[in-house]
Amino acid sequence: MSKVSLLIQYRLAYIFFFVFLLLVCFYAYKRPLYNWDMLPYMSLTLKMDNTDAKLVHDITYSEVEKNVPAKVYSQLTDTSHAYKRKMLNSKVDYEAVLPFYIVKPLYVLSIWFFYKTGVNLPAATILPSVIAYFFIGVLLFYWILKYRNPFTALAASVIILLSGPLLVVAKLSTPDCISALFLFSSIYFIVEKGKYFIAFFFLMLAIFTRIDNIIPAVIIISFLALVVNKISPLHYFIMLLISFICFFFVAYNATRFGWNLMFYPSFFKNNMVTFHKMSPAFSIHNYLSIHISDAIVGFLFSQVNTFMLMGMLAFTRKKGISFRKLTFDQMFLLMILVIYLTRFILHSETADRFYMPYYLVIIMLLVRKLSHFNVGHTEQ
Protein backbone atom coordinates (compact mmCIF):
# COMPACT_ATOMS: atom_id res chain seq x y z
CA MET A 1 0.00 0.00 0.00
CA SER A 2 1.35 3.44 -0.92
CA LYS A 3 2.09 6.09 1.70
CA VAL A 4 -0.54 8.38 0.19
CA SER A 5 -3.22 5.70 0.43
CA LEU A 6 -2.25 4.90 4.03
CA LEU A 7 -2.32 8.59 4.94
CA ILE A 8 -5.83 8.90 3.49
CA GLN A 9 -6.94 5.90 5.57
CA TYR A 10 -5.58 7.49 8.75
CA ARG A 11 -7.27 10.81 8.04
CA LEU A 12 -10.61 9.21 7.24
CA ALA A 13 -10.41 7.03 10.36
CA TYR A 14 -9.66 10.06 12.52
CA ILE A 15 -12.53 12.05 10.98
CA PHE A 16 -15.07 9.23 11.36
CA PHE A 17 -13.90 8.50 14.91
CA PHE A 18 -14.14 12.08 16.19
CA VAL A 19 -17.53 12.63 14.56
CA PHE A 20 -18.75 9.41 16.17
CA LEU A 21 -17.25 10.29 19.57
CA LEU A 22 -18.76 13.78 19.62
CA LEU A 23 -22.19 12.41 18.72
CA VAL A 24 -22.03 9.79 21.48
CA CYS A 25 -20.89 12.39 24.01
CA PHE A 26 -23.79 14.65 23.00
CA TYR A 27 -26.17 11.70 23.41
CA ALA A 28 -24.76 10.86 26.87
CA TYR A 29 -25.13 14.47 27.99
CA LYS A 30 -28.70 14.74 26.72
CA ARG A 31 -29.76 11.31 27.99
CA PRO A 32 -28.18 10.95 31.44
CA LEU A 33 -29.30 8.24 33.84
CA TYR A 34 -30.06 10.64 36.72
CA ASN A 35 -28.79 8.31 39.43
CA TRP A 36 -29.68 9.29 43.01
CA ASP A 37 -26.03 9.94 43.89
CA MET A 38 -26.18 13.21 41.99
CA LEU A 39 -28.13 14.75 44.89
CA PRO A 40 -25.37 14.55 47.53
CA TYR A 41 -22.80 15.65 44.95
CA MET A 42 -25.00 18.66 44.19
CA SER A 43 -25.26 19.41 47.90
CA LEU A 44 -21.50 19.27 48.38
CA THR A 45 -21.13 21.67 45.45
CA LEU A 46 -23.57 24.08 47.09
CA LYS A 47 -21.76 23.71 50.41
CA MET A 48 -18.67 25.25 48.86
CA ASP A 49 -20.55 28.58 49.02
CA ASN A 50 -23.13 27.95 51.76
CA THR A 51 -22.73 25.85 54.92
CA ASP A 52 -26.37 25.95 56.05
CA ALA A 53 -27.35 22.26 55.92
CA LYS A 54 -31.11 22.88 55.78
CA LEU A 55 -30.83 25.48 53.03
CA VAL A 56 -28.47 23.31 50.99
CA HIS A 57 -30.84 20.32 51.31
CA ASP A 58 -33.82 22.39 50.16
CA ILE A 59 -31.96 24.02 47.24
CA THR A 60 -30.68 20.61 46.10
CA TYR A 61 -34.15 19.14 45.78
CA SER A 62 -35.47 22.37 44.28
CA GLU A 63 -32.75 22.37 41.60
CA VAL A 64 -33.52 18.76 40.74
CA GLU A 65 -37.25 19.46 40.49
CA LYS A 66 -36.64 22.42 38.16
CA ASN A 67 -34.08 20.79 35.85
CA VAL A 68 -34.97 17.12 35.39
CA PRO A 69 -38.08 15.52 33.85
CA ALA A 70 -41.03 15.22 36.23
CA LYS A 71 -40.95 11.42 35.99
CA VAL A 72 -37.31 11.37 37.00
CA TYR A 73 -37.94 13.68 39.96
CA SER A 74 -40.73 11.38 41.11
CA GLN A 75 -38.36 8.43 41.00
CA LEU A 76 -35.63 10.30 42.90
CA THR A 77 -38.11 11.31 45.64
CA ASP A 78 -40.20 8.15 45.63
CA THR A 79 -41.69 8.09 49.15
CA SER A 80 -42.55 4.38 48.83
CA HIS A 81 -38.79 3.77 48.94
CA ALA A 82 -37.71 3.97 52.60
CA TYR A 83 -34.21 5.33 51.95
CA LYS A 84 -35.31 8.00 49.46
CA ARG A 85 -38.17 9.03 51.76
CA LYS A 86 -35.76 9.42 54.67
CA MET A 87 -33.32 11.47 52.59
CA LEU A 88 -36.12 13.75 51.37
CA ASN A 89 -37.71 14.35 54.76
CA SER A 90 -34.79 14.27 57.18
CA LYS A 91 -32.04 16.86 56.83
CA VAL A 92 -30.07 15.13 59.61
CA ASP A 93 -30.09 11.72 57.91
CA TYR A 94 -29.28 13.34 54.56
CA GLU A 95 -26.32 15.18 56.07
CA ALA A 96 -25.07 11.90 57.57
CA VAL A 97 -24.51 10.29 54.14
CA LEU A 98 -22.44 13.16 52.73
CA PRO A 99 -19.11 11.74 54.01
CA PHE A 100 -19.49 8.90 51.49
CA TYR A 101 -19.35 11.53 48.74
CA ILE A 102 -17.11 14.27 50.10
CA VAL A 103 -14.04 12.05 49.61
CA LYS A 104 -14.23 12.62 45.84
CA PRO A 105 -13.11 16.27 45.88
CA LEU A 106 -11.84 16.58 42.31
CA TYR A 107 -15.22 15.49 40.95
CA VAL A 108 -17.07 17.90 43.26
CA LEU A 109 -14.71 20.70 42.23
CA SER A 110 -15.38 19.99 38.54
CA ILE A 111 -19.14 20.16 39.19
CA TRP A 112 -18.65 23.49 40.98
CA PHE A 113 -16.66 24.82 38.02
CA PHE A 114 -19.37 24.00 35.46
CA TYR A 115 -22.09 25.25 37.82
CA LYS A 116 -20.30 28.59 38.17
CA THR A 117 -20.04 28.90 34.38
CA GLY A 118 -23.85 28.85 34.17
CA VAL A 119 -24.66 25.15 33.68
CA ASN A 120 -27.63 24.03 35.76
CA LEU A 121 -26.62 21.92 38.74
CA PRO A 122 -27.94 18.49 37.63
CA ALA A 123 -26.30 18.93 34.20
CA ALA A 124 -23.07 20.02 35.88
CA THR A 125 -22.87 16.61 37.56
CA ILE A 126 -23.00 14.89 34.16
CA LEU A 127 -20.52 17.03 32.21
CA PRO A 128 -17.37 15.74 33.99
CA SER A 129 -18.31 12.17 33.11
CA VAL A 130 -19.01 13.03 29.48
CA ILE A 131 -15.73 14.91 29.08
CA ALA A 132 -13.79 12.08 30.73
CA TYR A 133 -15.53 9.61 28.39
CA PHE A 134 -14.37 11.69 25.42
CA PHE A 135 -10.73 11.58 26.48
CA ILE A 136 -10.93 7.87 27.31
CA GLY A 137 -12.14 7.36 23.75
CA VAL A 138 -9.28 9.41 22.31
CA LEU A 139 -6.66 7.52 24.31
CA LEU A 140 -8.23 4.15 23.49
CA PHE A 141 -8.31 4.86 19.76
CA TYR A 142 -4.75 6.17 19.77
CA TRP A 143 -3.51 3.13 21.72
CA ILE A 144 -5.22 0.59 19.47
CA LEU A 145 -3.90 2.46 16.44
CA LYS A 146 -0.36 1.59 17.54
CA TYR A 147 -1.12 -2.09 16.88
CA ARG A 148 -3.84 -2.17 14.23
CA ASN A 149 -4.61 -0.51 10.91
CA PRO A 150 -6.79 2.65 11.01
CA PHE A 151 -10.15 1.09 10.18
CA THR A 152 -9.65 -1.88 12.49
CA ALA A 153 -8.74 0.56 15.27
CA LEU A 154 -11.82 2.62 14.39
CA ALA A 155 -14.15 -0.39 14.47
CA ALA A 156 -12.67 -1.74 17.71
CA SER A 157 -12.88 1.64 19.44
CA VAL A 158 -16.50 2.16 18.39
CA ILE A 159 -17.50 -1.29 19.68
CA ILE A 160 -15.73 -0.78 23.02
CA LEU A 161 -17.06 2.74 23.55
CA LEU A 162 -20.62 1.62 22.82
CA SER A 163 -20.36 -1.33 25.20
CA GLY A 164 -22.81 -1.24 28.09
CA PRO A 165 -20.40 -0.73 31.00
CA LEU A 166 -18.45 2.15 29.47
CA LEU A 167 -21.38 4.05 27.95
CA VAL A 168 -23.34 3.72 31.19
CA VAL A 169 -20.49 5.28 33.19
CA ALA A 170 -20.52 8.28 30.83
CA LYS A 171 -24.18 8.89 31.68
CA LEU A 172 -23.80 8.74 35.46
CA SER A 173 -23.41 11.55 37.96
CA THR A 174 -20.45 9.89 39.64
CA PRO A 175 -16.65 10.32 39.67
CA ASP A 176 -16.17 6.88 38.11
CA CYS A 177 -15.56 8.04 34.52
CA ILE A 178 -12.97 10.61 35.62
CA SER A 179 -11.36 7.99 37.85
CA ALA A 180 -11.26 5.57 34.91
CA LEU A 181 -9.61 8.22 32.72
CA PHE A 182 -6.83 8.90 35.23
CA LEU A 183 -6.14 5.23 35.96
CA PHE A 184 -6.26 4.26 32.28
CA SER A 185 -3.90 7.13 31.43
CA SER A 186 -1.52 6.14 34.22
CA ILE A 187 -1.36 2.56 33.01
CA TYR A 188 -0.86 3.71 29.41
CA PHE A 189 2.25 5.65 30.43
CA ILE A 190 3.52 2.62 32.35
CA VAL A 191 2.86 -0.04 29.74
CA GLU A 192 3.56 1.87 26.53
CA LYS A 193 5.89 4.72 27.43
CA GLY A 194 7.76 3.71 30.57
CA LYS A 195 7.08 7.22 31.93
CA TYR A 196 6.64 6.28 35.57
CA PHE A 197 6.58 9.78 37.05
CA ILE A 198 3.86 10.88 34.63
CA ALA A 199 1.97 7.70 35.54
CA PHE A 200 2.39 8.56 39.22
CA PHE A 201 0.94 12.03 38.61
CA PHE A 202 -2.22 10.48 37.14
CA LEU A 203 -2.43 8.08 40.10
CA MET A 204 -2.46 11.06 42.47
CA LEU A 205 -5.22 12.69 40.43
CA ALA A 206 -7.13 9.41 40.72
CA ILE A 207 -6.86 9.51 44.54
CA PHE A 208 -8.29 13.05 44.56
CA THR A 209 -11.11 11.79 42.33
CA ARG A 210 -11.93 8.75 44.47
CA ILE A 211 -10.23 8.14 47.81
CA ASP A 212 -10.36 4.36 47.29
CA ASN A 213 -7.90 4.77 44.42
CA ILE A 214 -5.24 4.62 47.12
CA ILE A 215 -5.60 0.86 46.61
CA PRO A 216 -4.48 0.69 42.94
CA ALA A 217 -1.97 3.49 43.55
CA VAL A 218 -0.12 1.60 46.29
CA ILE A 219 -0.29 -1.71 44.43
CA ILE A 220 0.91 -0.25 41.12
CA ILE A 221 3.76 1.66 42.76
CA SER A 222 4.79 -1.44 44.71
CA PHE A 223 4.63 -3.51 41.53
CA LEU A 224 6.94 -1.08 39.72
CA ALA A 225 9.43 -0.99 42.61
CA LEU A 226 9.36 -4.51 44.03
CA VAL A 227 8.35 -6.77 41.14
CA VAL A 228 9.74 -5.30 37.94
CA ASN A 229 12.35 -2.94 39.45
CA LYS A 230 11.38 0.06 37.35
CA ILE A 231 11.74 2.65 40.12
CA SER A 232 14.41 2.99 42.78
CA PRO A 233 13.83 2.34 46.52
CA LEU A 234 14.11 6.08 47.21
CA HIS A 235 11.54 6.97 44.57
CA TYR A 236 9.34 4.15 45.85
CA PHE A 237 9.42 5.57 49.39
CA ILE A 238 8.73 9.11 48.17
CA MET A 239 5.83 7.97 45.97
CA LEU A 240 4.27 6.00 48.83
CA LEU A 241 4.67 8.96 51.16
CA ILE A 242 3.02 11.35 48.70
CA SER A 243 0.23 8.82 48.06
CA PHE A 244 -0.65 8.58 51.74
CA ILE A 245 -0.40 12.35 52.19
CA CYS A 246 -2.96 12.70 49.39
CA PHE A 247 -5.10 10.00 51.00
CA PHE A 248 -5.15 11.69 54.42
CA PHE A 249 -5.70 15.09 52.84
CA VAL A 250 -8.84 13.77 51.13
CA ALA A 251 -9.94 11.75 54.18
CA TYR A 252 -9.67 14.87 56.34
CA ASN A 253 -12.76 16.23 54.55
CA ALA A 254 -14.82 13.48 56.19
CA THR A 255 -13.61 14.27 59.71
CA ARG A 256 -15.93 17.29 59.86
CA PHE A 257 -18.75 14.72 59.97
CA GLY A 258 -17.08 12.83 62.81
CA TRP A 259 -15.44 10.19 60.64
CA ASN A 260 -12.08 8.58 61.41
CA LEU A 261 -9.08 10.13 59.64
CA MET A 262 -8.16 6.63 58.44
CA PHE A 263 -11.54 6.67 56.60
CA TYR A 264 -12.00 2.90 56.31
CA PRO A 265 -13.03 2.19 59.96
CA SER A 266 -15.83 4.75 59.61
CA PHE A 267 -16.61 3.54 56.08
CA PHE A 268 -17.19 -0.06 57.26
CA LYS A 269 -19.35 1.01 60.17
CA ASN A 270 -21.51 3.51 58.29
CA ASN A 271 -21.70 1.42 55.12
CA MET A 272 -23.26 -1.44 57.05
CA VAL A 273 -25.82 0.81 58.75
CA THR A 274 -26.71 3.08 55.82
CA PHE A 275 -26.68 0.74 52.83
CA HIS A 276 -26.77 -2.81 54.17
CA LYS A 277 -29.16 -2.27 57.12
CA MET A 278 -26.93 -4.22 59.50
CA SER A 279 -25.69 -3.59 63.01
CA PRO A 280 -23.20 -0.73 63.36
CA ALA A 281 -20.94 -3.09 65.33
CA PHE A 282 -18.40 -4.67 63.01
CA SER A 283 -18.53 -8.47 62.93
CA ILE A 284 -16.96 -11.14 60.75
CA HIS A 285 -20.42 -12.59 60.13
CA ASN A 286 -21.78 -9.30 58.73
CA TYR A 287 -18.61 -8.76 56.75
CA LEU A 288 -18.73 -12.21 55.14
CA SER A 289 -22.46 -12.11 54.46
CA ILE A 290 -22.10 -8.82 52.55
CA HIS A 291 -19.15 -10.07 50.53
CA ILE A 292 -20.67 -13.44 49.66
CA SER A 293 -23.90 -11.78 48.54
CA ASP A 294 -22.11 -9.16 46.47
CA ALA A 295 -19.76 -11.74 44.94
CA ILE A 296 -22.70 -13.84 43.73
CA VAL A 297 -24.52 -10.80 42.32
CA GLY A 298 -21.36 -9.56 40.62
CA PHE A 299 -20.54 -12.94 39.11
CA LEU A 300 -24.05 -13.31 37.69
CA PHE A 301 -24.89 -9.77 36.61
CA SER A 302 -21.67 -7.85 35.91
CA GLN A 303 -19.24 -8.14 33.00
CA VAL A 304 -16.48 -9.53 35.19
CA ASN A 305 -16.87 -13.01 33.63
CA THR A 306 -16.25 -11.68 30.14
CA PHE A 307 -13.14 -9.78 31.17
CA MET A 308 -11.86 -12.71 33.25
CA LEU A 309 -11.97 -14.72 30.03
CA MET A 310 -10.23 -11.98 28.06
CA GLY A 311 -7.61 -11.65 30.79
CA MET A 312 -7.02 -15.40 30.70
CA LEU A 313 -6.59 -15.30 26.92
CA ALA A 314 -4.13 -12.43 27.24
CA PHE A 315 -2.21 -14.23 30.02
CA THR A 316 -1.88 -17.75 28.63
CA ARG A 317 0.64 -18.84 26.00
CA LYS A 318 0.54 -21.72 23.51
CA LYS A 319 3.58 -23.39 25.07
CA GLY A 320 2.17 -23.16 28.59
CA ILE A 321 2.95 -20.84 31.48
CA SER A 322 6.24 -20.61 33.33
CA PHE A 323 5.81 -18.44 36.43
CA ARG A 324 9.58 -18.01 36.51
CA LYS A 325 9.59 -16.46 33.05
CA LEU A 326 6.52 -14.26 33.00
CA THR A 327 6.47 -11.35 30.58
CA PHE A 328 5.78 -7.81 31.77
CA ASP A 329 2.24 -8.01 30.40
CA GLN A 330 1.56 -11.27 32.21
CA MET A 331 2.79 -9.85 35.50
CA PHE A 332 0.69 -6.74 34.91
CA LEU A 333 -2.41 -8.92 34.45
CA LEU A 334 -1.68 -10.63 37.76
CA MET A 335 -1.33 -7.22 39.37
CA ILE A 336 -4.77 -6.22 38.02
CA LEU A 337 -6.19 -9.36 39.65
CA VAL A 338 -4.60 -8.34 42.96
CA ILE A 339 -6.14 -4.85 42.65
CA TYR A 340 -9.56 -6.35 41.91
CA LEU A 341 -9.45 -8.74 44.87
CA THR A 342 -8.06 -6.15 47.28
CA ARG A 343 -10.67 -3.61 46.30
CA PHE A 344 -13.45 -6.16 46.63
CA ILE A 345 -12.24 -7.21 50.09
CA LEU A 346 -12.25 -3.59 51.28
CA HIS A 347 -15.32 -2.34 49.43
CA SER A 348 -17.45 -5.34 48.53
CA GLU A 349 -18.47 -3.81 45.20
CA THR A 350 -18.66 -5.64 41.88
CA ALA A 351 -20.41 -2.98 39.78
CA ASP A 352 -18.64 -2.60 36.43
CA ARG A 353 -18.30 1.16 36.81
CA PHE A 354 -15.63 0.68 39.49
CA TYR A 355 -13.50 -1.58 37.29
CA MET A 356 -13.73 0.09 33.88
CA PRO A 357 -10.04 1.13 33.69
CA TYR A 358 -8.95 -2.45 34.34
CA TYR A 359 -11.38 -3.79 31.73
CA LEU A 360 -9.89 -1.38 29.20
CA VAL A 361 -6.34 -2.37 30.12
CA ILE A 362 -7.19 -6.07 29.76
CA ILE A 363 -8.51 -5.33 26.27
CA MET A 364 -5.31 -3.50 25.37
CA LEU A 365 -3.05 -6.22 26.73
CA LEU A 366 -4.99 -8.73 24.65
CA VAL A 367 -4.57 -6.49 21.58
CA ARG A 368 -0.82 -6.32 22.29
CA LYS A 369 -0.62 -10.10 22.58
CA LEU A 370 -2.53 -10.72 19.36
CA SER A 371 -0.38 -8.19 17.51
CA HIS A 372 2.83 -9.82 18.71
CA PHE A 373 1.45 -13.23 17.80
CA ASN A 374 0.55 -12.07 14.30
CA VAL A 375 4.03 -10.62 13.80
CA GLY A 376 5.69 -13.83 14.95
CA HIS A 377 3.34 -15.97 12.86
CA THR A 378 4.04 -13.87 9.74
CA GLU A 379 7.78 -14.12 10.25
CA GLN A 380 7.53 -17.89 10.48
Description of the structure:
The protein is mostly helical. It has one domain (3-31, 98-379). It has 20 helices and no strands. It has helices at residues 3-30, 38-47, 53-67, 70-76, 82-89, 91-97, 99-102, 105-116, 121-145, 150-161, 164-170, 176-193, 196-209, 214-227, 233-255, 264-274, 284-301, 304-315, 328-347, 356-379. The longest helix is centred in the N-terminal third of the chain and has 28 residues, at 3-30. It is globular and about 65 Å long. The chain starts with a helix and ends with a helix. The model is unreliable at 375-380 (pLDDT under 50).
Topology:
Elements: H1 3-30, H2 38-47, H3 53-67, H4 70-76, H5 82-89, H6 91-97, H7 99-102, H8 105-116, H9 121-145, H10 150-161, H11 164-170, H12 176-193, H13 196-209, H14 214-227, H15 233-255, H16 264-274, H17 284-301, H18 304-315, H19 328-347, H20 356-379
Helix pairs in contact: 1-9, 1-10, 2-3, 2-8, 8-9, 9-10, 9-11, 9-12, 12-13, 12-20, 13-14, 13-15, 14-15, 14-19, 18-20
Average pLDDT, to the nearest integer? Answer: 88
**SS field, number of helical segments:** 20
Please summarize the sheet with the most strands.
Answer: none
Order of helices and strands: HHHHHHHHHHHHHHHHHHHH
Helix content, binned percent: over 70%
Key attributes of the depicted protein:
mainly alpha; 0% strand; 20 helices; 380 residues; 76% helix; single chain
